Amino acid sequence: MASNNDLSSREVESYTVKMVEQASKDELTVVIKHLLNHIRMHK
Q: How confident is the model at residue 1 (pLDDT cuts 50, 70, 90)?
């Protein structure tokens, strides 16, 4: 029973890490787009 719980929590952990990494990439993309627009506007 305990090993099943360990496995599922490990799966949840790795899934969470993937989601966080994806969210970070998306946020970074948005930030870069904003920066590029800002640079274009001030040229």
A: very low
Q: Give the distance, in angstroms, between the CA of residue 36 and the centroid of all CA atoms in the same chain.
A: 21
* DSSP for residue 28: H
SS3 content of the chain, % helix, strand, coil (to 5): 95, 0, 5
Question: pTM here?
Answer: 0.54
42 by DSSP, 3-state: which? coil
Cα 29 to chain centroid distance, Å, stands at 11
For 36, other C-beta atoms within 10 Å of its C-beta total 10
